[in-house]
Write a structure and sequence with these properties.
Layout lengths: L3 H21 L19 H12 L1 H7 L2 H16 L4 E5 L1 H18 L6 E5 L17 H10 L7 E5 L6 H12 L3 E6 L5 H5 L2 E4 L14 H20 L16 H15 L3 H10 L4 H10 L3 H10 L4 H6 L1
Parallel strand pairs: 1-2, 1-3, 3-4, 4-5
Length: 318
């Protein structure tokens, strides 16, 4: 037998579901495409052709948001140059994309484990399994940000295809109140997330091939924007020399080979000189390049890089 409390609770839940259902009906990312109602009856090649055609629209949708993306990147780089961190916060696919981008920064740009952080609603378990109710909790985002010691120099990027996910909203609202830089990345225009953030980026890719499956075009768009955000920020911070990853961390055989190739491409030095410099630089690619280009020893190269805040071009002018 259901108690009055249980009945009241069930009524409240039903009301919440109806509210969310009404919200979803207004979102472009959730729109139904009647022309695809019988897609499951099409030949595989035809489905693939339609899907490929859909995907081609994503880069232009990103291009339309370039001014907003550029403004967010410059603001992020400014904060990170002062010692701030880049923090991604999202649920489901959006959260996984943030964690993916964050996890690729240490080997690519030699960032510390706490410089670029990916937070996903529900924690590590949510990377591979759905965690019930996690994305519906703004309070969980506040707790997660508190655990990493959010500061005013940090940048928090809330990621949500719908632009209404409570976890992403909670992260952005809390971060902005704390004085951190905030970016809201969504795939619907006029989103609550963009409005809550200092920098709103709304990449409108339109309805999905499968209704509401925002791991498709919306996920691709978010990945492209996150690629730009982290990569260009790192370029601004001096983590590259031209288009060479001079801060690469050689953690495996492939990356050790890439390190030597980068030094060779940057300096034109013969293999023997590359090996000598890399050994003297204790494996640091940027130091080895400066040694070879400026004809200085490792301690001098290190000191010049420190003075230039890690910017190789500036160290070369020293």
């Amino acid at each position: 037998m259901t108690s009055p409390y249980d009945a009241e609770d069930a009524e409240g839940l039903a009301h919440d579901i109806e509210q969310i259902r009404a919200q979803l009906a207004t979102l472009t990312t959730e729109a139904y495409r009647p022309e695809l109602a019988e897609i499951d009856r099409l030949p595989t090649f035809e489905i693939a052709r339609i899907m490929n055609g859909d995907d081609r629209s994503v880069p232009s949708a990103v291009a339309a948001q370039l001014p907003a993306i550029v403004a967010a990147i410059d603001a992020t780089a400014e904060r990170m140059a002062r010692g701030g961190r880049l923090v991604y916060a999202g649920a489901g696919t959006a959260g996984r994309l943030g964690v993916l981008d964050a996890s690729e920064c240490p080997p690519t740009f030699n960032t510390g484990p706490d410089e670029v952080i990916g937070l996903i609603a529900g924690g590590a378990e949510a990377l591979t399994h759905a965690v019930e109710g996690a994305e519906d909790s703004a309070e969980l985002a506040v707790r997660d940000l508190a655990e990493i010691g959010l500061g005013a120099d940090d940048t928090v990027v809330g990621i949500s295809a719908s632009g209404r996910t409570p976890y992403a909203m909670g992260a952005v609202e809390h971060a902005r109140a704390a004085g951190a830089l905030t970016i809201g990345l969504s795939c619907n225009s006029g989103s609550a997330l963009a409005a809550a953030a200092e920098h709103g980026i709304e990449v409108v890719v339109g309805p999905e091939l499968l209704t509401g499956s925002t791991r498709l075009k919306a996920g691709t768009a978010q990945k492209l924007v996150l690629n730009m955000l982290s990569t260009i920020t790192m370029i601004r911070l001096g983590k590259t020399y031209g288009n060479l990853m001079v801060d690469v961390r050689a953690t495996n055989t492939k990356l050790r080979a890439r390190s030597r190739r980068i030094i060779s491409l940057a300096t034109g030095a013969p293999d023997a000189a590359v090996e000598t410099a890399l050994t003297a630089a204790d494996g640091d690619v940027k130091t080895a390049i400066l040694m070879l280009l400026a004809d200085v020893d490792a301690p001098t190269a290190t000191a010049r890089l420190d003075k230039a805040n890690g910017h190789l071009r500036a160290a070369l002018r020293d």
